[in-house]
Amino acid sequence: MTAPLAVFFVLAALAVIGAVNLILQKHPIHSALSLIVVMVALAGLYLLMGAEFVAAVQIIVYGGAIMVLFVLVIMLLNAGIEEHTSISKLAGVPGLLLVAALGGFIAATIARSTDVVQAAQQTGEMSSTKGISNMLFRDFVYPFELTSFLILVAIMGAVLLAQREKS
Amino acid sequence: MVPTNYYIILSAILFGLGVFAFVFKRNIITIFMSIELMLNAVNLAFVAFSRALGKLDGQVFVLFVIVVAAAEAAVGLGIIILIARNRQSLNVERVDLLKL
Fold this sequence. Notes:
A: Four Helix Bundle (Hemerythrin (Met), subunit A); B: mainly alpha; elongated
């Protein structure tokens, strides 16, 4: 087994264990911490693929900003252990069916399209950060500006929602 | 080099776990976290295809997905705070105003 493959399996196992732990944990704060493990493992996988800029953004934005927001809200609302009623335990059955259907569909798609993906040339080394900034500010400049508008609207929405009503 | 297939299979596994958590979990914050897990799984597939095809479009799209996820987290957590304030509970079964 080559070194990149070994690193891949370690990180993949870490990500899958984190995701399973997210489901198994009862307390939301434990779920949030296992989600951080998944995100850090995915950042490692991005580094392995030579996408160092995406890896950095993953750590800073997802692992940093978004998860801090989640943990903050969990502590702000003093979220306790989640309770399952007898009906909600049954939710696992349609959940498993849905996952099985989805997994079968994805597996069929992967099995069909393997040749196309494998035939594509694998270019491991590419100057990714420079290329990304070139594309982001040249080819995708209008979508990029639109995202700033989206963030502006999201800020206004979040402020409006979390505001206490004036009586 | 790790084959692209492995990344896609890992992405599918993570997405499936996210879907299951979305259906199974009862805490509204954990449900929201499983959406983030699904978005992360899709990002992994994007980067894997970007590498396999030797084009950077996938990585640029991942950045857009991350921006949308951040905006969604801000608005969604605002909504969660509102629900918690009005219902005094984070259990989605208590949020049944539309139920007959």
